[in-house]
Structures are given as structure tokens and as C-alpha cells.
């Protein structure tokens, strides 16, 4: 009986760990910080550290639960990852200034895809969309 209790405890505890989802709000704040550090980097090593962290965090965000238009959200994150990888490649091959355009594209994508997840405004709730 004692072994049965231990087995059930382990089984259910492992299931609860597997079901923990990503806290997108916290992850996105950390992603924003990594992006800011990449933009403000003055040394290539600083930039590479920040952009690698940024890419890692965006990939973690892809595992989160998107309630509004999940397909579009995932496509947007894929585009962000592609731009971040392009920025890293450009910086390593041509210098930090070459990464500015892909980094700007990331910010534009952020603005575009954040609109998918903004809560409705007062007038939208009152009068519909």
C-alpha cells in the first residue's frame, strides 16, 4: 500500500509539472529587456549575449497558450526569430550597425502582433467592433 501511494504521488506530481505553462507576461517582459540590451549593446560580445537570450525567450514564448488567433501569434513569433537571427548574422559579419534594420523590424513586428492581444477598449465593449 505504501508503494502504491508513492507511485501515485510521483505520477500526479510529474503530471502537474508537465502542465505548467509559460507565464507569457513575465516572459515577454524578459524578452523586452533582452531586446533592449541588444539594441543598446556597444560591443559585439554584449550584443551576441543579448540577442541569444532574446531568441531563447521568444522560442519559450511559442510554447505559451495564445487565446486570440494563436496561428497568427506563432507566425509572428517565427518572424521575430528570423529577424533576430538575421540581426545576429549581420552584426557578426558586418558590425553592430548592420543589425539596426533587423532590430527595427523586430520592433515593428512587436507593435503589429501586440494588437492581437490587447484587451478591447471601452468604446469597443460598449458599441462592439
TrEMBL record:
Could you list the residue ranges forming a coiled coil in this record?
A: none
What Pfam families does the database record attribute to this sequence?
Cytochrom_B562
One cellular component term (GO) for this entry is: periplasmic space
One of the GO BP terms on file: electron transport chain
Q: Which N-terminal stretch is annotated as signal sequence?
A: 1-18
Listed GO MF terms = electron transfer activity; heme binding; iron ion binding
Alphabetically sorted, this entry's keywords are: Signal
The UniProt entry's sequence similarity note says: Belongs to the cytochrome b562 family.
Protein name, please? Cytochrome b562
Name the source organism.
Pseudoalteromonas distincta
Amino acid at each position: 500500500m505504501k508503494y502504491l501511494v508513492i507511485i501515485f504521488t510521483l505520477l500526479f506530481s510529474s503530471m502537474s509539472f508537465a502542465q505548467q505553462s509559460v507565464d507569457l507576461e513575465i516572459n515577454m517582459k524578459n524578452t523586452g529587456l533582452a531586446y533592449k540590451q541588444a539594441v543598446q549593446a556597444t560591443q559585439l560580445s554584449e550584443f551576441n549575449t543579448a540577442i541569444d537570450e532574446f531568441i531563447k525567450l521568444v522560442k519559450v514564448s511559442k510554447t505559451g497558450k495564445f487565446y486570440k488567433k494563436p496561428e497568427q501569434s506563432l507566425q509572428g513569433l517565427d518572424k521575430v526569430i528570423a529577424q533576430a537571427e538575421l540581426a545576429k548574422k549581420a552584426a557578426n559579419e558586418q558590425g553592430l550597425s548592420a543589425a539596426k534594420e533587423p532590430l527595427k523590424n523586430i520592433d515593428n513586428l512587436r507593435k503589429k502582433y501586440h494588437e492581437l492581444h490587447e484587451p478591447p477598449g471601452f468604446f469597443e465593449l460598449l458599441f462592439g467592433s
